[in-house]
Amino acid sequence: MGKIIVLFATLLLGACSHSAMYSITGHSQQSDLIESAFQQALEHNPDGVIAYWVDNKSGKSGSVKPLYASYDFAGPCRHFELAYFYPDKTVSYHYGQACRRNQIWRMH
């Protein structure tokens, strides 16, 4: 339960940056790849359309899936699912909301 509270606090308070991606996934090596897929998916993909990323060096990969739009924070805002795929085939999922501010999607 503590991890869930920390995750939601991170999603609510963190900006979508390398440090925010690291705090969500715990993996700084892929933060550039995750950030790029995150921005691409939320800016251009319709709800449910997934953007993927792959780190060929580590074998790790993941995806960002916009879920639905909202205007909770004077949007535009979108809820999303961030999946992190490990080389051993385990997956961790993270959910949150991001709003567009100054041409960049930032987590709330």
Structural commentary:
This protein has 108 residues and is an alpha+beta fold. The protein has one domain (2-107). Helix content is 31%, strand content 37%. The chain is built from 3 helices and 5 strands, in the order αααβββββ. It has helices at residues 2-13, 18-25, 31-44, and strands at 51-55, 60-70, 77-85, 91-101, 104-107. A 5-stranded antiparallel β-sheet has the order 1-2-3-4-5. Strand 1 and strand 2 form a beta hairpin. The protein is elongated and about 40 Å long. The two termini are 20 Å apart. 23% of the residues are buried.
Beta-strand proportion: 35-45%
Question: What is the tally of beta strands?
Answer: 5
The N- and C-terminal alpha carbons lie at a distance of 20 Å
Order of helices and strands: HHHEEEEE
- Quaternary organisation of the protein chains: single chain
Count the DSSP helices: 3
The mean pLDDT is 79
Keywords summarizing the entry:
108 residues, five-stranded antiparallel beta sheet
Layout of secondary structure:
Elements: H1 2-13, H2 18-25, H3 31-44, E1 51-55, E2 60-70, E3 77-85, E4 91-101, E5 104-107
Gist of the model:
By secondary structure, the chain is of the alpha+beta class. Helix content is 31%, strand content 37%. It has three helices and five strands, in the order αααβββββ.
